[in-house]
Design goal:
The protein is α+β, with helices and mostly antiparallel strands and 136 residues long. It contains 5 helices and 5 strands, in the order ααββαβααββ.
Length: 136
Amino acid sequence: MDREELLSATPEGSGAPKKQESPLVSLEKDLEFYSDAIKEVAIEIMVEGISAHPIFIAHQHQVSIGEMILNKEELNTDWTIQASTLEEFVEKGIISKEKKDPFLKVYKKPEDFMCVFVIVPEGANFIYYPYKGFKK
């Protein structure tokens, strides 16, 4: 799912369209703000040989995967970001072993895009967000 789809998504069965702003609008703003820091961590994960496939978790509550790198409370933003890896996602069963290869086929170049696992009350999904300065 592309970020455009997520940003324009409306809750199913909501009847009349509501003027409530999607939380993903604030996520896009935060990802733009966090871009350089996230890219730095992604490169560090790859250079240190931890993983060739960094994954970042964006959430507004508590999650028990990855390591917190950007705290919304400390930074006065809407989203907290945690750093993880494909290997941890497979180990914890978020991505099943059978889905690992199909996931890798769509995984975008980590030097250009951050892979973000977005967790909202309605569920969770992966998005790829370009780092600042990257032209699609």
